[in-house]
Every structure is written in structure tokens, then in C-alpha cells.
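User: Hello, can you help with two protein structures?

Assistant: Certainly.
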Amino acid sequence: MKQTNSKKYNRDKTAFLYVRLSRDDELEGESYSISNQKKLLTKIAKEKGYTHIITFCDDGISGVTMNRPEFNEMIKQLEYGKAAAVFVKDLSRLGRNYIEVGRLTEDFFPEHNIRLVAVSDNVDTEEGENEMTPIRNLFNEWYSRDISKKRRISNKIKGSSGIPLGPAPYGYIKSPDNPHKWVIDPEAAIVVRRIFSMAMDGKGSEQIASVLTEEKILTPTEYAKVKGIRKSSAKTNPDPYFWNKSTVNNMLCLQEYCGDVINFKTYSVSYKKKKRHINSPENKMVFKDIHEPIIERSIFEKIQLMRMSSRKKPLKNGEHSLFSGLLKCADCGRTLHYHFNQGNPEIKYFNCPGYNQGKRKVCTATHYIRLDFLEKVVLAEIRRLVKFALKHEDEFVRIVGEYSKKNLQIECEGYQSELKRISNREKELDRIIENLYEDNLNGKISDERFKKMSSNYENEQNDIVEKIIKLQHKLNEIERKTLTTEDFVALVKKFARTKKLTARMINELIEYIEVHHAERINGVKTQKLVIHYNFAGVIKVPQDAPVDAPEVKLQTRKGVSVNYQPATA
């Protein structure tokens, strides 16, 4: 808000000038510029005898929405009785919403005894009513609808041809030779690769963010400002080096780093609503290998599998386990929790949280397993798997290639059926909401009824979109499991000389481990573990294969020992 005259306040001599410009209005030419609007309105206001002039300006905001900062402040000041007149270049400056602008011109301004002057539309309420005002307001809204429709068509054409509709993500910049192409920004790409590498090493998003903050690496927003890639935003972080874990999370999910372009990620239900909704997967368009990748596709997909596993918080002392989030109860399916023994903190273990829940006990046993025993079993099984893959590669490839095809197909068909059902409901909701807008515009339903109904439908739609995303993730996971046999074989061979478990090894090889409760078999305490490998599921080495099953035995307290029972074919 700008006050152009600070003389003694007099309401009758005070006029508010409201100027606004959006991207669409820039098409109308220089006469619509903010500076020219101010000059014109100041001149007219003075000619009509107003000496105390205050200007309100919203630059770059569409007139479809009435939620504009300076506009709202002006209305607030008018309610306080701070001015006797409002000057605008034309009625579309007030807004391009027929109903809301109509309320202003027909109810609000007369009720508060405010003179309205719209210069280009020859509107001056002091000279009497202008019968064309409602018609002009309607035309202004139609103009916005027409522009929105043309932009949607243009975006549809560009997006369907593989041209990126959004800005280049951190790590890429627009090509100087072709603004529709992205090229790697070497400086930022180093940071992107490091983030993915730390994730593969088992670091969580909060840990990664802390490392980047400590090393004073500019955040993507600040980096863009410094490089002049993007205009400065109104919000400025006082610490340009402070990385938020949500920023890291978002980057780890960007498929664009594989070299792909994903268009139509979001949509709006109407040109009147600026809120963007997440689009259902089948409505997005994915174009693979359009630009040079920063991250290998296999690495990206492994990260997504890792992130889909729920990770348990660390111990109170901040300690993490390599297996946190990977252990599942064989009976109730819950993720096992990580603990340490109160009497002897050196003993770390996992157990099922579903067993000790008082009256709400949902699991039949503790499924207790010590960390040191688990580490020995997993290392032994990985060594056994590598030995089998190296000595009997053809048989290994056959087993991996046939991984639970029947079960995966049944699972896939179930997800597809559910996905189709809720996708149809989402499309139906789109039609319902669009019809509500039309009925409200035509006066068939009241504004209050419209808001209540549209809110309920939009909430249902948001829930459906979340379900669609989860189902699509599950379908994508099944597709990755069935299409990456060669990658998994190569991955197993990579760890041929492994002597020690690492976070990267576990994350790359293992999807999850099914933990059974220890029981006595022929007087010997035995615990069964079933390892589910990424892309391959449970690999049961044939009993007749000359690769011995690992024998793992751990001596525990008071002479009690536990033996490992491997899965067999």
C-alpha cells in the first residue's frame, strides 16, 4: 500500500486507487502496466477533486481469485470508513469473478457509501447506475474461462509431446540452445549424486540434511537465486545453508533424475480454483530418457523400495541398526522394533510390538531376535547366495526369473481391479464438482450450499488420489520385481568378496526379512528366518545343489543357545 499524500485526513477527499496485473493481462499491452494504471488513475482522481490518494497494488495475481493481499487490505480499510471512493482502470481490475465482483458493486460499495469509478468502462456510480456493469462483469469472467481453456489446450499439446511443463529441478538447467530441453548443471548435480549415495549408505533424510547444512551447501532455493536461475521469492530463509529433511525427501522421489520427463503431475478442478491436486498415475504422462540422467535408474528404483519400508526411530542414544524397518513379524506382519537390554546395554535385539499391548495383544509371541545372531545369519546367507550364483549361474537365473510369477500375477490383478474402481469414482467426482461450479454460477444452488458440497467432494477426491498413488506404487514395485532379473544377478555378483555387512549391501539386496518366533525342535532351540530379496523374493537354494546351508549358532546367557533354520526348497 502506498500513500501519495500525507495531508490531514479527510474521508471525503480520500480515494483508493486499486491496480492489478496478471500474466494474462500483460497480453493486453503496455496500457495495462502497473505504472500506466497508476498514472491514469491518479490523474482522474485529482480531476474529480480527491487530494488524499492511497494506492493498493497486486502484481502478478489473477483476477479469478479474490484472495489478494492488497485487495483484501483495501476492503478492510473501506470497512473502517477510510475512503470515499475507489478508482480502477476497468471492472476486471477488481476481479474476474462474476458473483464476487457483483457483490462489491451492488452491495458492498453502496452499503458503505463508496463511489466506484472504472475509467475505461465509463462507470461512475456518482453519476447513476450503469446497466452494462453486470454484463461487463460476466464478460470478464468469460474472458478468464476462455484464457484458461486455451492455456489448458496449449499445455496438453506441449505436455503430450514430451516438452517439460514445469521448471527444471535442482541439478538441471534449461539448455541455452533449446529452452524446452534440460541439461545437467554440473555444480548442483554433484550434490544430487551425493544425496542419493548417502541414502544408499543407509542415511535417513534428516541425517543427509544435517550433513549438507554442516558443510554449508546452499539450499536449492538459495542456489537458484545466487545463480539467477529463478526470481527471488517473498519468503527468504535467514540461513541459506539450512537444509530441511522434506527437501531431501522430495529430491529422492524425483524420477526426473533418471532422465525422464513427467507431465501432468497435478491438476485444478476449475479455472476458479488455483489449488493443485495430485493427478492419478494413469493421467500422468511419463517420457523416458529425454535428457541426460544424473542418477542411474537402478539406483533410483532401489531408493524407492527402501523408502517404502517403514523405518523405526533410532534408540534413545541415537543409534540406528542396519536392519531397522526391514524385519517383519511372520505372524502379524508388523515391523519389529529395535531395543537394547536394560541390564546389559551391549545386547541389542528386535521384537514384535504387537505382542506386548496389554488387553489389545494382537500377536501370539515376542518374535525376539538378537542383533548379533541376525547379523551372522544374514552375512552367511548372502555368502551362500553369491556362491550359488557364481557356481550355478544358469540355475540361479532360472530360479530368480521364475520368482513367484503366479502369486505376483494374482496380486497384480487385485491391485489393478481396485485401481480401476477408485479411478472411475475420481473421474465421476471431477464431473460432479464441475457441474456444481456451473450450477452455482447459474444461481441454481446457493454459495453456502456450494461451498459445503464442493468441500465434501474434494475431500473424498483427495483421499482417493492418495489411495491411487499407493496402489500405483505397489504395481510399480511388482513390475520392478519381474523385469530386473539381470540387474539382480549382476548385483549379487558385485558382493562376491564380501566379508562384512554394510548398509549399502543390505539396502541393495534385501527387501525385508520375515522373522519367526524361536521354538524347540527335537530339543534344540531353533529360529527360522526368511529373507526376501529385492526383485527376486525368496530364493530357496535346491537341497541337491552342492552349496551347503549355513550353520549359525549363538550361545546366549545361562548356557542357552539358538540355532538358525534356513528356508529350504
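That covers the first. Now for the second protein you mentioned:
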Amino acid sequence: MENKKLSAAPLKSVLLYAKPYIAYLVLGLVFAVISVSLTLYAPILTGRGIDLIIEKGRVDFDALSPILIKLGIIAGIVALTQWLMSLCTNKVTYLTIRDIRNDAFKRLEHLPLRYIDSNPHGDILSRMISDMEQISDGLIMGFAQLFTGLVTIIGTLGFMLSVNVKITLIVVVITPLSLFVARFISKNTFLLFKDRSVTRGELTSVVEEMTGEQKTVAAFCHEQDAYDSFAEINERLRKISARAIFFSSLTNPSTRFINGLVYSFVGIFGAVSVISGSGFTVGQLSCFLTYANQYTKPFNEISGVITELQSAIACAKRVFELIDEPEEISDKDNAVLDDCKGNVKISDVSFSYTPDIPLIDDLNLDVKQGQRIAIVGPTGCGKTTIINLLMRFYDVTEGCVSVEGKDIRELTRNSLRSHYGMVLQETWLKSGTIYENIAYSKPDATREEVIAAAKAAHADSFIRRLPEGYDTVISDDGSNISAGQKQLLCIARVMLMVPPMLILDEATSSIDTMTEIRIQRAFAKLIKGRTSFIVAHRLSTIVESDCILVMDKGHIIEQGTHEQLLAKKGFYYELYMSQFCND
């Protein structure tokens, strides 16, 4: 759904999402009209019944029986129509929330990596789950109260006017005061509910971080610090929630007080009218009191509605802020990279994650097909950043990165990335079987191809020792297999797709020495004839590279083969000798 600044008017934006399901809204309104109309007709029958039993010995049972039967039928129809109305409003609500959640997730998939990196993952989760549920609760209550409330107010006014105009005017004049009270309170509670949603996002972030890194927390004995951090945010959430609920809850007693006055005035004036012999009967008074109560009921319930709606609007604002986030620069239509051989050129590239902190400046590199390029340097020098630029996870600030002579910004991201095979130091697995995780790079691969890739990555032996072999289910964090085994699966994934270009970022960092030697041999076969970029800290793994780029502070300070760089006795020589001496 294309809308500008949905977060500026969150309630209006939610209603726009509900617009396609207006048929259900109309049906809900129809059932509400039927339900309320019959509910309002019931007091008339009750009043007639009371007039038939007004005195001892003067009970007209013959006339009373049909009234009781009608009341029973009305009760059954009202129950059915209320159920059908709830069905319609729930349908609208859940379809609307489904569409909002789909759009939010779709936008999340197309947001630049900069947004994901700069926002706590727990806060994003909170927007996608908790805030969505709060919107849902607000919509369910809002739609239900809207339908029944409007019809009840209009219907009761009509019935009361038909019974007694003067007493009706008393009800109409006093009751709307509760609306002004509710509106005043709601204006002052919105910010509190917004703060509550933000704080809840903080809490989700802490929980997500602590559970995801529990081993690290335990290893460094930070359990108490983690608990203190959680407790501090949890206490803030308690205080903000208590204030928000307290102030929003003032609406209920305020409106009930005003509506109690209405009921009292109706009772007093009605009783006076009955005693004065104006033709206003006890049964009509009973009927009118019921109508007065029915009329004020929507106002009595308005506090609960406002509490939910204010919370829902605050949550909707956060969700629509996510949907409003600008997407990545759109791909150009049909700008597909075909016949990629692996020629990559980086020309005068500058880049920084934040404008005030420069990282890469005036970087130039010309890589020919089949070359093996190693990138080394101290932590933070820009090695992984080059990978991000090659894969177009980030776009360059200045300059150009081209593949086969085409600026990668002119190519679709999918066509560019489909020509790269990547194994990172930080492994990633999804919830599913071993087979599904390896086949992630090539969904149409046969089982034989997957097994062959696993054998090439030296993962087949440990896979077969698992309870279900290739059908063993692993969790998304791979907690039921070791770090080295996770990395072997990621390597097998790349072995399966056999791309023209490879990116290996510390691809064997978690693997034992003997297995690493075997995998290096497998990689040697795999990268033969293919352009490969290898980021490494262990310099012994890159001595056979065609070209080694030595980086420092975003610049290539040395370039050449292993032997050439050692002969220079410069920065690379010091790095290599420091590792050799330590070994």
C-alpha cells in the first residue's frame, strides 16, 4: 500500500487498510442495527407487561403470555445477531492487521541494511508483534463499540422521544458532558501510551539480546548486570504503564458520575409525572429508565474504548514509522547481470557508515576473471566494508563499483548477488533440516547434489552421525550443533551453488586444523577459474593468493603477492612475522 507518512495520521491509515473489507463492516453494521433495534424494542414489551401486573388481583395472564414469548424470541435473535456482528468485526480486524503486518515485513525486507544495523532488533520485533497485537485489540473493541454505540444512541433517542419529549431533552443535554471529559483525558494519555510502546520495545531488545547471547553473559559472569538492566527497564515500563492506565481510567468514573446524574434526573422527573396523573404510567417510566440506561451505556464504556484506542494509535504510529522508512534505491527494470565472468573494478570509491566518521577514501582496485584477491589488515580498517560494497548491502558514497563494466547500482540486486557465493565468519542457519539449510543456495538441487556439496565441504561425515542424518532438524541459531559444524554447512551451501565469484570472510575460523587443511584443498578446486575475495586474519591461509591487498584506515597501503610483500618488509611483513613469531 503506497501512502505518504502513514505515521502522521495512524488512525486514518489503519482505516485505509480496512477499506477493502468494507463489505464486512456494512454487514456488521446491519447486524448491529438488528441487535440494537430488538434490544430497544424489548423495554416497550417489558413496560406493557408491567402495566398488566400493576395491582394485586389484576394480572392479565392472557395478554402477558404473548409478550413473554416475544421477549424470548427477541433474546434469541439478539444473541445470534451479536455473534454475527462480532464475527464480521473480527474478520475486518484480523484481515486489516494481516495486511499491515505483511506490508511491514515486506518493507523490512526492502529496507537498507543501514536501518537494520542502526536499530535494536528487539525493538523491530516489538513493532512487528506486540504493537500489532495492541492495534488488533484496539480495532476489535473500537469497531464493536462504534457499531453498537452509534446505533444505540440513535435508536434510544428515537424511542425516548416517542415516549416523552421533556424527559428526553434532560438526557440529551446532560449526557454529552461525558464526551468532553473523555476527550480531555484522552488527549493527555496519548503520549503516555507512546512512551509505553517505546519502553516495551527496549525491554524486548534486552530480552532478545540476553537470550541470544546467554553463553557470553554466563562466561563473563554478567548475569547480575543483565538482570539489573532488565529490572531498570522493567521498572520504567511499570511506572509508565501505571500512569497511562491510571489517567486513562479516570474517564470511566467521570462518565459514570455524569450518567448517574442523568439516571437520577430521569427517575425524579418520571416519578413526578406518574404521580401528577399526566398519563405517564409506571410501565412507561420503567421503559424510559431502561432507555436512559441504554443511551448512557456507550458513554459509560467509552473509557475502555479510549484506553484501547489510544494505546492502539500509539502502537500504530510506531508500526507506520517502520512502513514509512524509505526503501533501498529501487532496482532498474530489467537491469540484469548476464554472463558474469568475474571482472570487478572499484574506481575512486569513498564510503562511511556515518557522515562525520570517514572510513574508506579513494579506493581503487581492478580484479580480473579468476584472480584470487586476499584482503588483510587490522580490525576496523575496512575489510568487511569492501564486502558490503561488493554485495551492494551498502551503496558507495562516491565513486563506482562495477562488474563486467556495469555499475552495480544499475543492476538489480538479485542478479548481482546471485553471482556471488559468500561464507562469513558469522554463520547463519535457518530453522529446518540439514538438507534445507544446504539447499538454501539452490532450492531446486537434488539430494545427490546436496550430498556431493557436503562431501566437498567435509561435512558429510558429521551429518551422517546425526540422529536423522540430512533430515535432522536444527534450530535457527544452530544451538544443537557446534560452531565448526555450522560453518561447514555454510561452506557446503556455497559448494552447492558454484558461483562465478566467491567471498570468503574468515570462512574457516571455527574449524579444526586438519579439517581446515582439507577444506582449503576443496576451496582451491572451487575457486579455480573463479574470482574470489578472501578476508583473512591468519595470513598462512592466503599465501597462494594472486594479489594481497593490505589495508589500513580505509586505504590500500600495500599490494602484491605474498613474496613481493615480504620482500618490501613493510606493514604486511610486520603482520606476517608477528603471527609467525607467535606461532
